[in-house]
């Protein structure tokens, strides 16, 4: 598989920066912008020249090494430190190099006539740089700036300071992603006993490996005796001949900042239990159970009004309907606009708001798991916005729910029987009173027939009395049967209303809480993919 081009890496990095705006630290975005600008500027300049920088601490012998590579005394050397106060450029093949050196802000330039490597026409710039641990801060600033601009980094250390923690921590380790365009030189090996040179080289190689620079070549060199100079010259010549160092350096810069951006993390997978916990909390805040109970109570009340004993059922009308009291519809009502209608339920109590807040924040915590501080803050901001909207949205959701509390087919049937029984009792009662009332008005009293031939205890009872008692008892029994059926059906309606309300709560949770947070998580995933591409990997 071919390596991604610098254009592809830059494109992925720019996409990551756009997605991470407001989510990753501004310092990181500024670093992205600097790299993009630097890449554009470097690629607009000479692609023929390879710029090699010699970086080192005070006393490492960079200037002597520069002279040894050039084959003549270009750089000033002295025991007094620091010697190099401004960068010095040795230029092989100066055509096109001027603009590049202007961009590097290197004024001291020496045009080399002697070839850098025998038999090769190389376009090469070697820079002798100020000490990066110089007591003069402006010297250190120059070294730090050029460490971010040169194509090839050559770290020059000496046997006394090669293990200095400051050198490795502050300068070498931060550029660990640049191993492809990095070399290390152990200078002044002439000061070591011959049998210790390889031991120190191995120790330096181990320190570089700990810095993250795996596989970087370490060359033992002496600018005084010339030992290793040819090997170093050959290594630099290979960089210049390949003419890939500039692109490799840019790719390393991009991968370096991409590695820092990867610290923002990747969103983890949400469990179904997280959503269920959110919906349970919002259901409690929306009074789902109370509304479902009101459905059952409303059904029982209206069933009792219709099917109860007519002489007492009218009293049920005096009690308020639980659903009507909440301004809730019994079912789908024509002309009712649920989007603007509100229930008559009291505003969320402090306890209900706490339930909703706990549920939403717990979901936000789960959604933000694995993500950096910026992404987590954005997710919790969405959660805060959702908490502001939820009271009204949940109220609307309850208002538009078809609660299914309408009457049943058996109500009119039982009501008809009730009225027939009541009519029979009334007629029987009047019939039973006629023998008493008619004589008072001078009329002949009718004969009251009796029940005969049934071979039961009813034999001998007046027929009107049987009708009166039977009508009353039938009405009472029918009322009790209606109450039992109403209770059972009411419980079924309560369960159905609960399911429908929970479905509406699910829709609100999805729209108000889940979708905005999931949108943020998707943005974080796209950011992670773009960062991985910028780092040269596929996610």
Quick gist of this model?
Helices cover 56% and strands 6% of the residues.
Give an overview of the whole structure:
This protein is of the alpha/beta class and 539 residues long. It folds into 2 domains: 50-243, 3-Layer(aba) Sandwich (Rossmann fold); 272-329 and 342-535, no CATH class. Helices cover 56% and strands 6% of the residues. It contains 17 helices and 7 strands. It has helices spanning 6-20, 26-44, 62-70, 97-104, 137-147, 165-172, 197-211, 229-242, 245-261, 272-285, 288-307, 310-313, 322-325, 350-368, 373-399, 410-437, 463-534, and strands at 50-56, 88-92, 108-111, 124-128, 152-157, 182-186, 218-220. Strands 3-2-4-1-5-6-7 form a 7-stranded mixed β-sheet, with helices on both faces. Helix 10 (272-285) crosses helix 17 (463-534) and helix 15 (373-399) packs antiparallel against helix 17. The longest helix is centred in the C-terminal third of the chain and has 72 residues, at 463-534. It is rod-shaped. The two termini are 15 Å apart. The relative contact order is 0.11. The model is unreliable at 78-82 and 334-338 (pLDDT under 50).
